What does this fold into?
Amino acid sequence: PVAGEEAPGQPETPTVVMLEAPAEDAIPQHLVEEAFRAHDLKVAWATGSLDEVARDAVVLVTVKRQIDAALLDRLPAVRLIAVAFTGYDHVDFECCSKRGIAVANVPGYSTDGVAELVFGLMFALLRHIPIAHQHMRAGHWNWPPGNELSGKSMGLIGTGEIGMRVAEIAKAFKVKKVLGYDVSHNPKFADIGGEYVSSLATLFLHADILVVACSLTKDTRGLIGRKLLRLMRPDSVIINCARGAIIEQEALIEMLREGRFRAGLDNYEVEPLPADHPLRSLPEDRLVTVPHLAYKCHESLRRRQDVTLANILAYLADNPQNIVN
It folds into this structure.
């Protein structure tokens, strides 16, 4: 059936299966149910198992949980995958297309939160804040100088919404220049004084601070490899609040261990990051890590639920929005 059209035998109150809570723990389950019930939608939670979920569910909500053929086989009436997240590389698009299932996402809900964490990681490295905190807790005082952000050159890999927000904030900190690399040039980037370069190598050679701000696609997976990382200097910083797999992980670990540059990471190729992963044991003066929390602010998570619900309602009303397939 097309968007909004009732399949034969479909109940008057459509069922929405929640594989994960759209706002995670920012909104209690009973309030999520109330918000959906206000629009005549029934919520069925499947955060643990699908065994008790109605097979006539028409909408499936996921955040980061994998959507594949095996899962969809158990929910044959699903017509919409509502991804309560901006990234959707965990959804099998080919499988959805074959079954006529639409996929919607939530673009831009965490732009400010992600951009703000980029600078949090940046300052943590430039001023050695995590180690300085431990230094104080240990009863010490004297501390060597760090570095200012002012006067540095910043390089952005990707100039979409997040890249643009990072560029705007960087200007407020009086960086010397903002360089950008993107296959699609954003006219707004030039308007705020940004300068595009024609090659990633140019970015790595000339930027003091590099920020990964592009989506993970088949073209960007492993985009930043050993050869590019070798171009960085010991005082260079790379921040990744995008996707871990954009940077070649083995090369990243090896070169951080050698002290070739510094890094701030919020994303990893494998998540959750295993307890024995080598990234957990690298020197703290070279690496600051956080557990994929750039998007995780109360404000952004509430916004994410609102847009997810709106995506579902728009689809059921024959006017779909934010469809990505």
